[in-house]
Amino acid sequence: EYGGLFHGQKSEKTRMDSYLQLHKVNHTHLFNDYPYKQIIKKENPKEVADWSPYVNNGGTTVAVAGKDFAVVAVDTRISSGYSIMTRHGLKASVLTDKAVIATSGMQADMTTLHKTLEVRIVQYLNKHQKTISTPSIAQMLSNTLYYRRFFPYYTFNVLGGIDEEGKGCVYSYDAVGSFERCYYSCSGTGHELIQPLLDNQILRQHQKGESITLSSLDETVELVKDAFSSAGERDIYTGDGVLIYKISAKGVETEKFALKED
Q: pTM, whole model, 2 decimals?
């Protein structure tokens, strides 16, 4: 029946009768009033128009660079709309002993992106017999995101670590791979709440006679905790806990900080 329907082997009315019979649809009462091509209509056209392959699962990420260290932090709540899917989600990956990536946005795309980066880092190690540097990872991440620019990963990434000179570095990205090296970066649903605090406390914006302040590792961790505590009070998609990655010449240390669970 389908062959006749789509390849013009039957008359128009026969093709329409075949279609209606196959799909158990009775529209014979419409035959005299409408052309056959107008009988079959899309069901729920509004639902089709509103469908999207993307979903924002919320969360907030922060990365801050110091003189010889970097701190990367991300909350553990994964949400869908007004529902909390898990309070113990993982949105960061330790790529090397000197680089950590944290991601907000769509959890499925984040998982795929992190796995892709991990595979390419192993390939680099096998080919060159050395661990890839953090600036090289930054460029690789940019290339990976740009490669998918026509159907982008719905992810907003921050990368923190130590460069070849032992200095802390942070890289900030948009969804299609444009990036820059900076002193600090944040992304996600709590971005608007945390960014002004970092502007004030690190760049000393709007403070006369003050210059950029690079704090110690412990002071930076306390600043990050304060930032997440503030964002967790006002952003329903940020909460439950914060994973803090402290990257230095010694490697990567992890600390968990509890937030409100409401």
A: 0.80
